[in-house]
Each structure stands twice: as C-alpha cells, then as structure tokens.
Amino acid sequence: MKKILPCVIGLGYVGLPIFLRLQKKFQCIGYDIKKRRVNELNFKKDLNGEFSQKELYLKNKSLFTSDLKKISERNFYIITVPTPIYQNKKPNLEPLINAIKMISKFIKKDDIIFIESTVYPGVTLKLGKIIQKKNNIIINKDFWVGYSPERINPGDKDKTVDKIKKIVSFENCPKKIINKILSVYKTISRKLVLSSSIKEAEMSKVIENIQRDINIAFMNEIMMISEKLNINFYNVKKLAETKWNFMKYDPGLVGGHCLPVDPYYLYDIAKKNNFSANFILTGRNVNNSMKKFVLNKVNKKIKDNQIKKILVAGISFKKNVSDFRNSIALEIFKNLKAKKNLYVDAVDPLIQSIGKLKIKKLHNINLNNYELIIYLVNHDVLNQKFSNLKKDKHNILDIFNYLK
C-alpha cells in the first residue's frame, strides 16, 4: 500500500483534534488559511482552550502551515472548514467550495478526499464533481470522496473524537482504497460506524443537531408558558422527569456554529425539492426568540429597581467553551452595553476580549459594584464564584436556574 500522507484543511474546533490524532501515526500536515492561527499553534498555544501546550507538540515530522505548497504532495485530504449561513439564512458553502478548488490543483490518481463539515445531502458528491471537471478525472474511479460528519463537542473532555462513535461513509471503493480509509479513520476514532451511502451520512449529521435544537426549543417554550401561568417551571420539570421515558433536556440560549445553522441547511434542500419542512424551523424560531425573552426580563428588572450598574456573567455560546459564534449571551450583552443610561460590564473567564469589547477578569471583579448580575452561561469556574453568593444580598437574575 502506498504511503498515506494525510492533510487536515482547517485547524479549528474540528480540524485540530483530528490532526493531533493523525500525527500519532502519520506524517500529517495541518493547513489553515489563517496565518495567525497557524503561528499560535506553532508556539504551542490553542486560544480555543481545548488543548494544552504539551498536547500541541508535533510528532512524526508533522507540521502546521498556511503555505499551500506544503500540501501539494499529500494524498488523503480531510476538510473541516466552517459551513455557515448567509444573512438571508441560505446555506453558505463558499468556504467548502474554496477549499475544494484549492486542493483540486493537487489531486492525483487514487487520492482520497473526506468532508467533515456539516452539509445537506448531496453536497459531498457535488464537490467531488468540481474536482472531476477541473482535473478531467472521474470521481470514485480515479479519485475518491467520502463523508465523515464531525461530532466534536467543545468543552467536553469525556466525549473526545477518539472515544465517540464516528460515521465513515464511502461508495464503490476497491479494497485498497477502503484499507487506506480505515487506516486513517481508525487512528482518529476507536469506534467506527461504516456507511455505504454518503447521502445517508450527510442526512444523519443534520438531523442530530436539528433534533437537539427542537428539544431545547420545546423546553424553552414550556418555560415561557409556565411563567405566563405563574407556575414554577423547574418544579414541573422535576415532576415530569419521574416518568421513565421523559427526555431530559434543559432550556437555555442556543448558539454556536451548529444548532443555529443546520436546520436552515436541511430546510433549504427540502424546499428545493418541493417539500415545505416547516416543523424544522419552528424550533429555530423559538430559540431565536430567547434573546427577546431574556431582555424583557432584564428590562423589567431595570425599570422596577431603577438599576444602572449591571454585570453580565458568561458571554460564550455555551458552558466551558471560549467560542462566541452566534452567542445569544453576547448579543444580550451588546444590546445592554449600547444603552446610554446603563453601565454594563461582562465577565467570562474563557474570553479576554471580542474586538473592541473588553471582558472583565474574574479575579478583578468586585460584585458589590453592580446592582444586577445577569447569569447567562454556567461555566464551571463561574459557578464556583457565584454559587456561594447570598441571593438576598446580590440581585441575581438566574433565568435558567444554573445556581441551584
């Protein structure tokens, strides 16, 4: 078998852990167009906070680079770039298409390309046809494409990529190509789930995230209804959870790169195929409305208590991560910060700054300086600081019952 030379395109939350697994066995190249990100990693710094300095040491002559020439001799490409949406909620495949066009310059006979980015069914083969057209070689005959949906859970040290079940899909591959695929992916994960349908694997990924989005939306809506009926939602939830098949989901602010995006991918392809998948977006609409719900509660507090000084605790998109993409907590902070009659600070131990927005350091915070603390993200470090506070002394708005 010809020597496998893997290359991971994109070194974010998905690509970096894959690279670090692969370099244990292969001479692997990690490529990112962001030179700053590459420089940080070469200095053993992961500003995403997922890996320590020790974990970033390179092995087997592997390297991080933003030099396109370095990847020209690779023969197994894994693409992990973002798949966002446009402002009109339409899928934005440009980062993925650009990555495909970039590596198409180097694709040779028997090379293998795997997509890890979240897409709707049909995208992987469509991308392969871009290479086919540019290079005059035939997809899944001269070169090979596959799909392995990412299941990275930032901030979770238990469900790391090597421990979770990982879907690996490919079609009509000869044994020598299958052996290469399995050699690479068995290095990434100990538990592989093989699929002979790329479209089915693509579909499975989007519904994983949409299911979670819808279930959180349901709990958010029940919480809002309970408030209207003057019922304690959290007592209701405890009672409901005594039934053996009641699914345990919590209400909250849904952000990040996946859940606020993926429903629009499936909705778009369904609509193009003359099916109106309205239920998919029902959950999205509820979760998007949580910003208004929280701000209404905050504004009532401000008005009722004539509050001027506010601290927002937690602004990343979820617990124990520094990622603030599509963070509703951040949007709430920005909204309050823009009000001229308020003095508003934010504290988040995992984030130092966002552009011109400065974030207070936890050890420098004097809680007595604030008339209202809005608790939005339950980082473990924040919980340690705030859980012992006397709520009768400090005015804390803990909408999601994090400080139990």
Structure description:
The protein has helices at 15-22, 35-42, 94-104, 123-135, 175-188, 198-228, 233-240, 262-272, 278-288, 290-305, 328-337, 380-386; strands at 6-9, 29-31, 63-65, 76-79, 112-115, 144-147, 165-170, 191-195, 309-313, 343-347, 353-354, 357-358, 372-375, 396-397. With 404 residues, it is an alpha/beta fold. Helix 1 packs across helix 5 (175-188), helix 6 (198-228) crosses helix 9 and helix 8 runs antiparallel to helix 9 (278-288). The protein is globular and about 70 Å long.
Summarize the structure.
The chain has 404 residues and is α/β, with parallel strands linked by helices.
Uncertain spans: none
Q: Order of strands in the sheet with the most strands?
A: 3-2-1-4-5-6-7-8
Alpha carbon gyration radius: 23 Å
Find the structural class using helix and strand composition. Answer: alpha/beta
Shape: globular
Beta-strand residue percentage: 5-15%
Largest sheet, in brief, is: 8 strands, mixed
How many beta strands in the DSSP annotation? 14
Counting DSSP H or I runs of 4 or more residues, the number of helices is 12
Q: How helix-rich are the residues, as a percent range? A: 25-40%
Instruction: Give the end-to-end Cα distance, rounded to a whole number of Å.
Output: 57 Å
Q: List the secondary-structure elements in sequence, H or E.
A: EHEHEEHEHEEHEHHHHHEHEEEEHE
Average pLDDT: 93
Label this structure with key terms.
404 residues; alpha/beta; eight-stranded mixed beta sheet; 12 helices; 37% helix
